[in-house]
Amino acid sequence: MTASTTSHRFSTLSVAPPDAILGLTEAFLADSNPDKMNLSVGVYKDASGQTPVLKCVKAAETKLIEEEKTKGYLPIDGYTDYRNHVRNLVFDETIEHDRIAVIQTPGGTGALRVAADFLVTQLTPIRIWIPTPTWANHGNIFAAAHLEAQPYSYLGADRKSLDIDAMLDDLKNKTRVGDAVLLHGCCHNPTGIDPTAAQWKEIAKVVAEKSLIPLLDFAYQGFGAGIAEDAVGLRTVLDAVDEAIVCSSFSKNFGLYSERVGAVSLVASDADACKASLSQLKRIVRTNYSNPPRHGGAIVATVLDDAGLTAMWTEELTEMRERITRLRGDFIDTMKSTGAGHDFEFLRSQNGMFSFSGLTPMQVDELKNKHSIYIVGSGRINVAGMSESKMSQLCEAVASVMES
């Protein structure tokens, strides 16, 4: 006996639009051009075009395989050693540890979703203010959690600089007391444009005056200027407020993309508030994914538990960061050498994996269709996906679409 066609509920569903970034990867994989380039998804690639496994990670995994005794569940809040290391990396000794609740999450995306659910379930009514532009998935995550998101100014009209005056004006005059505000801790995605130390102080002052709850997306620690240096803005804000949420990721700085290693850290005004907040975070996790995966967090903890492996990690992280800086400089210099007259010098002050190129959606589309070079429609380029061997090819293609 077959069910009637009226009971085929799934047959009425429409196809969801592809993800703005991951959809490009699908198109890239289907492209038969042997010289194709994928500069869309935010992953680091070495000179051979591979996303490498760090040596410190390989060493930690060897140790884990030899010593691991169980595949049992982790606690809801995750691996204790890992959470302690997250606390140290993010906050150092700037905040009393009994005011910080840390939850291990499946990547930075998982951390953002847990944070969004916390804001909605515990602090409703609340809105969150997000920069224009921001990571494409921020809005999707907040919408899925039914957290109302509103935009605040960030990128200047020249599309090359931070409009700090407009940003501060929006945060002063558009927000309500008690709203949340999303801030990129470093290496702003998609622009690579970060506030200066002085601007962070201005931002922190407004956040404190309006009693805003800062939600700091801290996915690129170590990819800007250094591990401690990249925390300056975050710690400046935290120095001005008693409550905040930080979402961390180890996808980039440990190269652990597929292991999904992240954390949400909640800063409360005192130890009692911290305990209560932690209990609510655990409740949210329990009704979502229940327990975090063990392996990635254990890798991070194993590396940071060992002085030798930690030194190896910082060296490898420095090599990745410095190579990204060189690639950005090579792109700027090679664009000059094309003779097309297009000056990309403004990219030199940008930080991290991404650069906001200023290319229009039409030029981006032409790069894909004519040259098999894939970048995000906003003009964001993943500098960490460039290669020395294909730099001339890339720059000649960019010059050609800007002239057409």
TrEMBL record:
Residue span(s) of domain Aminotransferase class I/classII large: 35-398
EC number per UniProt: 2.6.1.1
Keywords per UniProt: Aminotransferase, Pyridoxal phosphate, Transferase
SUPFAM superfamilies: PLP-dependent transferases
Domain of life where this protein originates: Bacteria
Names of the cofactor(s): pyridoxal 5'-phosphate
InterPro entries linked to this entry: Aminotransferase_I/II_large, Asp_trans, PyrdxlP-dep_Trfase, PyrdxlP-dep_Trfase_major, PyrdxlP-dep_Trfase_small
GO BP annotations listed: amino acid metabolic process
Transmembrane parts of this sequence: none
Gene Ontology molecular function: identical protein binding; L-aspartate:2-oxoglutarate aminotransferase activity; pyridoxal phosphate binding
Protein family according to the UniProt entry: Belongs to the class-I pyridoxal-phosphate-dependent aminotransferase family.
Quaternary structure (record): Homodimer.
Protein name: Aspartate aminotransferase
